Amino acid sequence: MVQSAVLGFPRIGKNRELKKATEAYWSGKISAEELQTSAKNLRLDHWKLQKDQGVDIVPSNDFSFYDQIMDHSFTFNAIPERYLKYDLSPLDTYFAMGRGMQRPAIDGKPAVDVPSQEMVKWFDSNYHFLRPEVSDKTEFKLNSTKAVDEFLEAKQANIQTRPVLVGPVTFLYLAKATKESSVKPIELLPKLTAVYVELLKKLVEAGAESVQIDEPILALDLSKEVLDSYKSTYETLAQGGAKLILTTYFGPLKDNIEVLKGLPVAGIHVDVCRAPENLDAALSILDDKQILSVGIVSGRNIWKTDFQKAVAVIEKAIAAIGSERVIVASSSSILHIPHSLTGEDQLKPEIKRWFAFAVEKCAELAILTKAVNEGPASVREELEANAADAKARAESPITNVKAVRDRQAAVTPEMHTRATPFEKRYALQQESLKLPQFPTTTIGSFPQTKEIRVTRNKYVKGSISAEEYDAFIRKEITDVVKFQENIGLDVLVHGEPERNDMVQYFGEKMEGFVFTVNGWVQSYGSRCVRPPIIVGDVSRPGPMTVKESAFAQSITSKPMKGMLTAPITILRWSFPRDDVEESVQAQQIALGLRDEVLDLEKAGVRVIQCDEPALREGLPLRRADWSQYVDYAVKAFRLATGGVKDDTQIHSHFCYSDFNDIFDAIQGLDADVVSIENSKSDMKLMSVLSNYKSCIGPGLFDIHSPRVPPVEEFKERIDALVKSVPKDRLWINPDCGLKTRGWPETTADLENMIVATRMARNENA
Ligand code: MET
Ligand SMILES: [Zn+2]
């Protein structure tokens, strides 16, 4: 009999209960015991929920208070010394690793001041993990029995679970060596694997019938050294006596499949949503007993699974190896999708029927499994309903809008190109904008005060009128403009007070998007996001930002920068469609933005910024796929911005990433000025900066921190930059928008930045 399996369930809870409980604990409102109790209740709820939907194999140890990788660092005692010296409780040590800790001395306990571990994106998802830190001094040992405890907790509730562990090769591959250590993390595999064996033995003793061991790095380009390590590592792991299901996801295994051949594991899981070819690849290397777990229900998007296609794939696996050896599974953990569709009553029924969130995906797994075990007749109604939903979606007018498609068909290469090369048009812009050397600017948003949020909520709820809200926004803009004039910034912004979020704001103004009320997904720790969903062809019915930007420009003689979110960021921070290529969706968004850019220009806005912070994260996992992505991403930006006059200045902005990999792409955008987050990266951008051909503003202060750098520090940074960037190409700005900061530090930061800039101008005139 085929069995169904979920690889990991969203842990934050239907109404973000976990977020609320952990934040309450952090602020001292509830005790550690109360926090543990609510976590335990959530775990139990989630196991029951999955069982109730009919899932056979449900995961345990997929729960985490902060991040699953950090749980492994903690479990295996990869805890950097700096977190141990304060004698914190284990739970507080753990949270300190995740979010840092700063508190004054109290009751004879010393003051604590320790930053968090480094946070990194989980492959190409929007989930973030805390990068493990190891050194030759790391003493791997079992520091926590979380995996065993959670297994037993479920068992006590009469639920047999399959514990999830992140595999040792993936763990060390994602780790970094501590500053003091020169060890290559992967060299520590033998030591770490020995402790995994101990843990596996404990799980077997506790009654675990099999263990899911995740090795997602197998979807990456790997060195021979890493690939070779699989054999010895898994031979050692076999001593643990557990039936291991080696689990891969997020992409094609390609040649990496070879290292799985002959490994002493009970089975292999592959993602056939992202890479259908994984099915044949896996079938070709299994021995005659190994299980194949077929990841056919996507853990990465919110679309209903096409049952007809899915059944055909599963049947193929059954035909090859027999139903006893096939598992029907989610492609990856489903933590990347919202909890459930229940309560999303604002969604039009004709659109809601296209979606399946986590709970609904569990039901899908059960239906598919029944279909292959008992025959299609056993779930006829479900199969028919699913086919009808798919048909309705394919035929829906919103998924194929003629006007949008016609416009796409008429896009010409010239539309991606500014009329005049940078050198020449920049001279014209200088003439018209009359900016000093080292022009100063900000990235767009100013502090989103409580008053702004409260007033916006009132407007959304209808308790104030559109006129009252407009007047409020105008006053906010006026204040921010005056502030910038007073402290002496050169290129001003309107401050973005009208925006809830840089993607949602545009989604709401365009056709083709829908929004959930409760579709939260964990991004990192207790932070959750609620991505818009792209459901149809995207277009822009009318101006989105012109009113605010034109007003802001009308009250100052300084240049006002119009502020837009660029195509890839809108696409990446939404749930994209799965029925149309992402390149097509990016182009649709770009055409809408193009109209906006031209309308801004018409309204007298001479500087326009299109933020593309998500450009880096869209890079495919395999290098061979990069150029195709970069090509359409760059084209989308150029299509959005390429139609302006020579003396209209196009800016772009990048943050949250390591830019080395996309520096050519950034150059390819042909923007006149780019600002790049830089302050946290120890100015490591420096080496590439000198090669940049247009203007560049490396961020001068970290907007995530309330700390205000003194003037001297700003001056040092500017001096360092002047050495690598041509003097007439350097712009001065913060790392990113200021919306999460308060006014006092914003004022102090910007004042110091401007004083230092003036000093630098005097020295470099
Ligand atoms: C994450 S990038 C943010 C850019 C946006 N213009 C802001 O200033 O907030
Ligand atoms: Zn930013």
Structure notes:
The protein is an alpha/beta fold. It has two domains: 394 residues, Alpha-Beta Barrel (TIM Barrel); 211 residues, TIM Barrel, CATH 3.20.20. It has 26 helices and 23 strands. The strands form seven sheets. Strands 1-14-13-12-11-10-8-2 form an eight-stranded parallel sheet. A five-stranded parallel sheet has the order 19-20-21-22-23. Helix 1 packs antiparallel against helix 2, helix 21 packs parallel to helix 22 and helix 25 crosses helix 26. The longest helix is centred in the middle third of the chain and has 22 residues. The N and C termini lie far apart (79 Å). Zinc ion (ZN) binds next to loops.
Summarize the structure.
The chain is 41% helix and 12% strand. It contains 26 helices and 23 strands. Helix 10 (307-321) links the parallel strand 13 (291-297) and strand 14.
The helix content, as a percent range, equals 40-55%
Q: What best-fitting shape do the alpha-carbon axes yield?
A: globular
How many beta-strand runs?
23
What's the tally of helices? 26
> How many domains make up the 3D coordinates?
2
CATH class of the largest domain: Alpha Beta
Measured between the Cα atoms of the first and last residue, the distance is: 79 Å
Radius of gyration over all CA atoms, rounded: 27 Å
Major pleated sheet = 8 strands, parallel
Q: What's the architecture of the largest domain in CATH terms?
A: Alpha-Beta Barrel
CATH topology annotation of the largest domain: TIM Barrel
Taken as a percent bin, the fraction of beta residues is 5-15%
